[in-house]
Design brief:
Number of helices: 4
Distance between the termini: 25 Å
Helix content: 55-70%
Number of strands: 0
Radius of gyration: 12 Å
Length: about 80
């Protein structure tokens, strides 16, 4: 397993402007809010406490979103 710097997923979303595709992915509204708050600077811990889930689940939501955007862009032929 790779050791990534803290917040590397946030940087992927920001650097690739992935938030612009949030409505083009099959992401439920609650997860969209979590992703937006994560990109705005909230930590996995803060979000897990706010939304009553585990840090691992929040991390999984963010990771899943990145995968959804990458698949969307691949289908659209833009990545």
């Amino acid at each position: 397993m790779k050791n990534h710097p803290a917040n590397f997923r946030r940087q992927i979303i920001i650097d690739n402007n992935f938030l612009q595709y949030i409505d083009n992915t099959n992401t439920i509204p609650r997860n969209k809010e979590i992703i937006k708050e994560y990109v705005a600077g909230s930590s996995y811990k803060e979000l897990s406490e706010k939304y009553g889930t585990s840090k691992g689940n929040v991390e999984s939501m963010v990771s899943s979103y990145i995968g959804k955007v990458r698949r969307y862009l691949k289908v659209k032929g833009t990545e």
